[in-house]
Amino acid sequence: MNDQQNPAEQHPQPDFPSQEQPHPGWTGPMDPPPDHGEESYRGSGRLEGRKAVITGGDSGIGRAVAIAFAREGADVLFTHLDAEKDDAQETVRWVEEAGRRAVPVSCDIREEGNCRSLVDRAVDEFGRIDVLVNNAAYQMSQPEGIESISTEQFDRVMRTNLYGMFWLCKFALPHMREGGSIINSTSVQAYKPSPHLLDYATSKGGIATFTQGLAQMVIGRGIRVNAVAPGPVWTPLIPSTMPDTTEFGKQAPIGRPAQPAEMAPAYVFLASQDASYIIGEIVNATGGTPLP
Questions:
Q1: Which residues belong to the active site?
Q2: I want to staple 56 with a disulfide (CB 3.0 to 4.6 A). Which of 27, 62, 151, 163 is the partner?
Q3: Beta-carbon neighbour count of residue 73 at 10 Å?
Q4: pLDDT one-digit tens code per residue, 6-46
Q5: Is 21-27+41-285 a CATH 3.40.50.720 domain?
Q6: Would you list the domain boundaries of the chain?
Q7: At what angle do helices 264-271 and 60-71 cross, to 10 degrees?
């Protein structure tokens, strides 16, 4: 990739072809195909020997982070849903090509027991956890209004986006040593909520607050907690949860959605010792949308 480019023209710009998928969505049918940094990310040993856990690592931001972490020297255990096994195997392939261990785990983080078992599996595989990335999320657009958001949907959003993060932090922290890092994925939606994503935006606001509170709680243990707030990112979540993707990302000042590869460097930085004085921060990667 050219080192100096116009960022607005660096990746595909809408309008995109109309496309819909059933949830949870898959990478293969997406047009244009997402870029996870497969051909562009170059590591420099910033995470050499680290042991990382990433939720939702089969595709999208999670896959991009897994690839980047591996190329920086980390072994990666990541979660996926049963329906995402094919995408998960692609993540495994790229991590192993980087010479690192990849451990895919089918896990629905909506259940506390599953989260406890996931941490146990990571400790069995790696002996410890150095980096925890809480990235898995659920959304479903409801443009008709709050009346169309069922209790079942609201519960699924909160249990995936908030409860799962809470449980994984709670169970992982006893296995993290000084210098460890927790990175949560919040969103531009936490600050500028779209009405059709009311429940999702609410959960992302909760993640931002949780991040800032937990950061103060655990820095005394030598563990840093931060978050990344992406703007619109071209992942399988989009065609599988939104009715019209043709203009997705056009609302950002940059005029296009991010590719997952553009998010990964923020996670690498926060996981690395380069971010030793970065605690309780939200790194905004919104394509120019101003946030508080």
A1: 200
A2: 62
A3: 17
A4: 999 999 999 999 999 999 999 999 999 999 999 999 999 99
A5: yes
A6: 21-27+41-285
A7: 50
